[in-house]
Amino acid sequence: MPRVIWKGAISFGLVHIPVALYPASREDEIDFDWLDARSMDPVGYKRVNKRTGREIAKEHIVKGVKLDDGEYVLVSDDDIREAYPRSTQTIEIERFVAAAEIPFVHLERPYYLAPINKGEKVYALLREALLAAGRVGVAKVVIQSKQHLAALIPAGPALMLNTLRWAGEIRPWDELSLPPAGRQAAGLKDAELKMAAQLVEELSAPWQAGDYSDQFKDAVMALVERKSQAGDTREVTPLEPAPEQPGSSNVVDLTALLKRSLAGGASGKAAPAKRPARPAAKAASKAAAKRGAPARKAARRRA
């Protein structure tokens, strides 16, 4: 089972459907690691102060919005919650529209919705009603502290929530050099349209997602396999050994994360005032000097 991202309810009119939100897509790209070509050491990502070049702890990072005059307004998570205190656990359907009316360019990320808390019957009722009407719900929802516009879409046995890009996120085509819309305005002849329609018809087929694959990824992974079989590999020593965990699990080790966070935070906090410990070599040198002090004093007296 995929992890639950969010729990809440679909709401429209007096209808209230308790649901859980699950991811419906996954990243399936080639996982390239960055390596130093000179030493084969892993190259990691760090939070770095751009002025000093020094790494900084997470707790010292704040959110800032840059103004036109170059100054910043600092905004905390509490400020954001107070500025928009509305419930974040509701998918608020504002209207129902024909699915074909939403342009593909607005579609962003799909999620599955599953009924919880005995909401199966009303969940199925909304799904079947949308299928019969050929419509989808347009809703607003807050996911992970960000408000999204979304479409509630029936798909087989599921209701899906597909986040949509806001109108302001879509670039206009005004600055592009495009042929005018319409066959006459574009100067198209009937014979040309007929041949184009014939070609479209010949290449038409029902949509089957399994008919398509990422050929670039397949080719690169085949290359990796050939290099591996030929012994063309390099050894990379991890900077830190991975912690041993019993069995395989997708659950984040919270204890390890807290320990790393505390270790990172300690470097950025002011240490309590105390006398710093002397390096071993320096301390040994001073001890030797003390042992030799009486001999030097006697030598001076003889002189």
Protein model, in words:
Helices cover 29% and strands 22% of the residues. The protein is built from six helices and nine strands; from the N terminus they run E-E-E-E-H-E-E-H-E-E-E-H-H-H-H. The strands form two sheets. A seven-stranded mixed beta barrel has the order 1-2-6-9-8-7-5. A two-stranded antiparallel sheet has the order 3-4. The longest helix has 23 residues, at 280-302. It is extended. The termini are far apart. Residues 246-255 and 266-303 have low confidence and may be disordered.
Short characterization:
This protein is of the alpha+beta class and 303 residues long.
Helix content: 25-40%
Query: What percentage of amino acids are in beta strands?
Result: 15-25%
Give the overall pLDDT as a whole number.
Answer: 76
N-to-C series of helices and strands? EEEEHEEHEEEHHHH
Overall outline: extended
Terminal Cα separation, in Å?
89 Å
Helix and strand arrangement:
Layout: E1 6-12, E2 15-23, E3 63-66, E4 72-75, H1 77-83, E5 90-98, E6 107-115, H2 120-133, E7 135-143, E8 146-155, E9 158-164, H3 190-202, H4 215-229, H5 254-268, H6 280-302
Parallel strand pairs: 1-5
Antiparallel strand pairs: 1-2, 2-6, 3-4, 5-7, 6-9, 7-8, 8-9
GO molecular function: double-stranded DNA binding
Keywords: DNA damage, DNA recombination, DNA repair, DNA-binding
Biased composition (Basic and acidic residues): 228-237
